[in-house]
Each structure stands twice: as structure tokens, then as C-alpha cells.
Specification:
The protein is mainly alpha-helical. Helix 8 runs antiparallel to helix 9 and helix 10 runs parallel beside helix 11. The chain contains 22 helices and ten strands. It starts with 6 loop residues before the first helix and ends in a 34-residue tail after the last helix. A hairpin with a 2-residue loop joins strand 1 and strand 2. It is globular. The chain has a two-stranded antiparallel ribbon. A two-stranded antiparallel ribbon has the order 3-4.
């Protein structure tokens, strides 16, 4: 959303975030100031140690990139065997049957009450049984890296995390009781959409090797970096509200509700697309990719202040689902997020979903990764600025283009099962390109139901309406004159022709910047002496 006034981005980001928070957290009704300003709930996914007991082991299971589960729950392989139209319950049933066979290799205590600790312990036990050396290597790697989340509580974040890792070193099936009845189903959900498992399979797309690398031990620590950022994001108050609205069963542990939320939202597909977008033309290493993803997910909730004149203190308004483009002061006023962090977060599939900016964001920046709509809060003064604004979301393999390509070739590519489905879809689209089309299809332009959306709020019969009509006509003429010398003279000529009785023949003035042999007017292959326009 573009505006000429600096106050507008603040207003847009605070009002939209406030309304989103009101809907996501109905139990914390924010219609009154005292309830809105109240302390937000703590994350239920922290690595806390309480009374000498590690209370965050289920959270660690969410973030663990289990190699065994990654192999048997790969949606790409399941799409080949079950078909691309298989529903999620059919997929979970197939994975559950595979997991039941694996669980037979682990000893089980008979009798007694069901032990819920099996739900988080089983992924670690399966991996340690399959490859003890790789399992110990992973524990050493994550213990050295630690967790980036700043948590309060007994022992602090670092010591709490290390205590959880240390418990895994001494984990043994004999210490657990009888398995819960839903163990295989819960593991199936982890295999299909667990944050750690999904992150590892997505990062494998950046490894130009055979399919077997998707559960490689070398990918586990980078995948854990991404999964840790996802865990932190899932623990935010806004995420808690979304998860609980989707799964309102109050008796369901939050980590299990969050896992079901990841299954319902197709987390694997989300991360696969994000990795494809971030790779671009390739050349990005897996650790760099993981760090960039974690950095985008680490964007903090920021705060804006509203000045009041009733003797009360200034009102502090949280911004998260919508943000202004610029430096952000975190809600605790201890940290500062730079503009590039905000831009990286907006170019991810996670919040902020609305970015409000002044003209500072209308040139030289890309916002096309997950956006294809531009709202002009006020109209620019010339056609060049209008083109620049909308050009921010009309870029290489932009959001609208990907939606059209996926609609046309998604099912076909999933049926064939290439490792990188997005690379396969664009390859299919390029192979099917008609010969008369230029090479900007399909990466820049591809027909379909999605397109760049221009939204111009305006009152009927206002000056803004007439100004918008004039600006649209000028934009069309500007495109005709683009690339020509002395553009002002050409625009004047076109304007005079439009006002006169006849329209001049301006085909000679057209410049075609499309790549390929069609650069030459009237001929397919340039011959000696041809003039390239």
C-alpha cells in the first residue's frame, strides 16, 4: 500500500493489526484500553525446566528434523503412489501404516497406564536406532549452536535448551510406559508436516543431488535452525490465537494443536515454495538459505505510539500482521528491526501480510514473492511513478505468475514426482510455450486467473476519479513512448492526434523490448541491413 504521507503507514499498520488481533484473540477482548494493554500470554513452546523436569520436550519434537519420518512421510513420494488428488486423511492413513511397522522395532512396556512421553520420544528413538552416530552428531551440533530465542524463566533459554538436549542423550525406551493409542497417528502428522521434518525436506531442494539427500544428516542442523524460528513464531500470541481458533478443543495440548494446524495449512508445500523463491537462479548454500529463512521468521512484533490529550499516557499499539516499511521498534522497546528485515519478512509466506509505505518503497525494491496487489492510498503525480509502484510486484516468477503456472501444471508435475515441483512446473510451462510467444513467458507473464491487482480507493464524482482516468490514459501513452528519444515530443504528438479528427499512424514509434528474434520489425530472422527498432 503506497501513500505520500508518513502518518498513513503508521495508521494502516496499527488499525489492521489491532482488528486482526481482536479477531484472533476473542478471549482477550481489546475493545477497552486496559485489556488491550494487558500482558500477552507467554509461549507454550518454550524450553522451560520446572521442578527439575524438562517441560518442553514436545516442542523439541516439533522442531526435530527426524530422518526416518522425513523419508516415510515425504508428500512428493506419496503423491506418486496415492495420486495428486489424495486427501489429507488418506495420506495420513498411508503414513500411519508405515510407522506402525517401524514401531515394532522399539521395545515396549506391557501393562500400566499409557505414557504420553512416547509422543515426543519416538522420533528420537527411531533415528538413534537407524543411525546412532548421526544422531549423536546432530545433538552435538545443536548443543553448540543453541537456541536464538530469548526466554525468561528458571535457568534462562540457553541452559533450558541444553537440559532438554541432555535428556535426549539418556533417553531409553525402557524408561517409558505403555504406548498411547494415537502414537502412530501423531507421528504420521509429524512425518507429513512437522516443522523440523518439513524444513529438512524443503532445504533438500537446494542440494543438486539425487532424491536420497532429502533426509541427509548434513541437512539436519540447518533444518533445525529454520524449525526453531517456526517454533518461536508459533508461540507468539497472534499465532496462538490462530491455532486455537482452528482447533478450539481446550483439552488438546497446544503443541498438538499447532501440529494439526501445520497439517491443515500444508506446511511442507509452503516451505517448498519459499525455498524455490529464495533460491532464484541458484547459487545459495543450504546454511545461507536456512539463516535467511530464520531471519525472516524472527521479525518481532513492533509498537507504535498514539498521542492522547486526555491526561493519560500515550497508547502503545502493536503492529504485526500489517507493518509500515521502515525501522521497527519491538514491543519491549529493546530491539530494532531494520528495513531489510521487514522486507525479507514481507517476502515470506508469513506475516506481515500488508506492507504500508511512502514513496521510499516504490523504486528499486522487490515485493513480488508473495504479493500481487497494490493499493494506491493516493495517486502519484506522473505515470512513471505509477509504473514503478506496480513494478514492485510484477517481477520474475512473481506471486500471480506462480499461481497461474501451478493451476495449469501442478497436478501433472506432482503425478510425475520431480523433487522440486516448482522447477518442474516452470519447465513444463516453458516446454509448452507456443512458438509465437516470447521468452518472458512463463517466468514473467503467464495466462490464468491471477493478475497484478491495482486498487485505487476513491469517492464517486470526486476530483480523484477524474485524475485517475487521466493518469490511466497517460500511462498507456507512456508505455508507447518508452525507450524513445525525446519522449515529451512524442507524448505531445499522440495527445494532439487524439484531440483531432484523425488518429496518426504511430506504429513506426512502437518499441518492442521482448527477447528473441521478434526484436526486428516485420521479419523473423534479421538479414543484413535490417533495422532493429
Amino acid at each position: 500500500m503506497f501513500s505520500a504521507w508518513n502518518v498513513v503507514p503508521h495508521a494502516i499498520s496499527t488499525v489492521l493489526s489491532y482488528e486482526a488481533e481482536r479477531r484472533l484473540r476473542p478471549e482477550y477482548w481489546v475493545g477497552r484500553r486496559e485489556t488491550y494493554s494487558a500482558r500477552t500470554p507467554a509461549s507454550p513452546l518454550q524450553y522451560r525446566v520446572s521442578a527439575g523436569r524438562e517441560a518442553g520436550m514436545p516442542a523439541l519434537a516439533l522442531t526435530y528434523p527426524c530422518r526416518v519420518l522425513a523419508r516415510i512421510g515425504d508428500p512428493r513420494e506419496l503423491a506418486r503412489t496415492l495420486g495428486p488428488q489424495a486427501g489429507i486423511e488418506e495420506v495420513l492413513d498411508a503414513v500411519e501404516r508405515r510407522i506402525e511397522g517401524l514401531l515394532a522395532s522399539l521395545p515396549e512396556s506391557e501393562g500400566g497406564r499409557e505414557d504420553e512421553e512416547w509422543l515426543w520420544a519416538a522420533p528420537f528413538l527411531l533415528d538413534r536406532l537407524a543411525d546412532p552416530e548421526a544422531f549423536e552428531s546432530f545433538l552435538g551440533g545443536v548443543a553448540s549452536a543453541g537456541t536464538r530465542e530469548e526466554e525468561d524463566g528458571e535457568g534462562g533459554a540457553a541452559s533450558g535448551f541444553l537440559a532438554h538436549v541432555e535428556r535426549l542423550r539418556h533417553l531409553h525406551p525402557a524408561d517409558l510406559g505403555r504406548r498411547p493409542a494415537d502414537l502412530a497417528r501423531t507421528l504420521a502428522r509429524l512425518a507429513v508436516a512437522g516443522p523440523g521434518v518439513s524444513a529438512m525436506r524443503a532445504l533438500a531442494l537446494a542440494v543438486d543431488q539425487p532424491d536420497g539427500t532429502r533426509e541427509s544428516a548434513e541437512l539436519q542442523v540447518p533444518a533445525f535452525t529454520v524449525a526453531e524460528a517456526l517454533r518461536s513464531r508459533l508461540g507468539r500470541p497472534e499465532s496462538q490465537g490462530a491455532v486455537r481458533l482452528a482447533h478450539p478443543d481446550s483439552g488438546l495440548a497446544y503443541w498438538r494443536a499447532a501440529l494439526r494446524y501445520a497439517v491443515d495449512g500444508g506446511l511442507q508445500a509452503v516451505l517448498d515454495e519459499w525455498v524455490h523463491v529464495m533460491r532464484g537462479g541458484g547459487g545459495v548454500s543450504v546454511p545461507e538459505l536456512a539463516e535467511s529463512m530464520a531471519s525472516a521468521l524472527a521479525l518481532r512484533t513492533s509498537v507504535a505510539r498514539a498521542n492522547l490529550y486526555d491526561g493519560e499516557d500515550d497508547l502503545r499499539l502493536r503492529t504485526h500482521l500489517a507493518m509500515r516499511f521502515g525501522r521497527q521498534i519491538s514491543a519491549d522497546e529493546k530491539n530494532l528491526d531494520r528495513e531489510d528485515v521487514v522486507r525479507r519478512a514481507f517476502n515470506s509466506p508469513f506475516w506481515p501480510f500488508v506492507l504500508a509505505t511512502t514513496s521510499v518503497g516504490q523504486e528499486g525494491l522487490d515485493f513480488h514473492s508473495y504479493c500481487h496487489a497494490v493499493v494506491h492510498w493516493n495517486l502519484p503525480g506522473n505515470p512513471v511513478d505509477l509504473e514503478q509502484r506496480e513494478g514492485r510486484v510484477h517481477r520474475y516468477q512473481g506471486h500471480a505468475v506462480r499461481k497461474n503456472v501451478a493451476a495449469a501444471y501442478g497436478a501433472q508435475v506432482l503425478r510425475e514426482g520431480p523433487m522440486d515441483a516448482w522447477a518442474g512446473m516452470f519447465h513444463q510451462a516453458a516446454s509448452a510455450r507456443p512458438p509465437e510467444m516470447s521468452e518472458i513467458n512463463p517466468a514473467w507473464v503467464f495466462p490464468g486467473g491471477s493478475a497484478i491487482q491495482r486498487i485505487v480507493p476513491q469517492h464517486p464524482l470526486s476530483r480523484e476519479s477524474a485524475r485517475y482516468r487521466r493518469l490511466v490514459r497517460t500511462v498507456a501513452t507512456y508505455r508507447l513512448a518508452f525507450g524513445q528519444p525525446r519522449q515529451e515530443d512524442l507524448l505531445r504528438l499522440v495527445g494532439e492526434g487524439a484531440q483531432g479528427s484523425g488518429q496518426p499512424d504511430l506504429d513506426w514509434a512502437r518499441v518492442n523490448l521482448e527477447p528473441g528474434p521478434k526484436l526486428v520489425s516485420g521479419v523473423q530472422d534479421p538479414a543484413p541491413g535490417d533495422v532493429i527498432r
